[in-house]
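Quick question about two entries, pasted in order.
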Amino acid sequence: MRKREASFTLLFRHWLKANPMRTAAVFELKQTQTDSFPFKNVEEHQLEALAAAWGPEGLIYKISDQSQGYKPCDIVYFRLSPAYIVIKYPKFFCLIHASAFGAEMKTSTRKSLTSERAKEIAEKVIELPKKTVKRSKE
């Protein structure tokens, strides 16, 4: 995992722990360094897995025995569970239900999701604190 991705994953985990969901949920984390997120960055198999998790058939996922570190269980199963694309833009991150993301991807005339439009279709928007710039002493 790249450092940038690892950093956002950690940030999201902390946010989720402080703001627990009412039920089990599934998240696909993405990020962009601009105010636009290319739709092509979410692959078809990812949307299919998210759709299965919120659908009646459910999503069964086997956690690899080859994975490093702590392994809480062998298999997880999600059915009728909220499923989100979580996109980190430079100033915020947002939780967009996978069905809303898929609909936007199919109907948009654009090839990407602007940060403004993401805020409109998101179920939750979390503003990030502004970074403070340390001034050097002169």
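Here is the second entry:
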Amino acid sequence: MPLRPPAYAFLYMRFGAIVGGMTPISLEDSGMFKHRVDMLRNIALYHHEAINGRGYPRGLKGDEIPIEARIVSVADMFGALTSKRPYRKAWTNDEAFATLRKMAGTQVDQDCVEALITCRGEIEQIQTKPEEDPCG
């Protein structure tokens, strides 16, 4: 019996982080970017962890979560909230910032949220650039 979309999405999100964490191994083996492999692995594996320990895949909390993963987590959430999805419209930056502030200290790193909001002007400049054509 095929998985229905909610079950598929759940499995993809849970196991995608683990599989993503394996990807840098091939870079390490090839000698490319050897000094960046740990950082890439940390981002892939831990950007779904939550500050309160209720994230995945390992349930790390607070400073146990590598800083690069905490940064990417906030950026990833902001991008998801402000992007149009088939099931909802894109949120405004104000709505996304307000939501991230509510999540700060429990789900995401408060300092990372504040750092993102401090860069609002730069973010809005990036958002005004034309979208890239996915076909090149």
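Reply: The chain has one domain: 5-128. Confidence is low (pLDDT under 50) at residues 1-5. Hope that helps.
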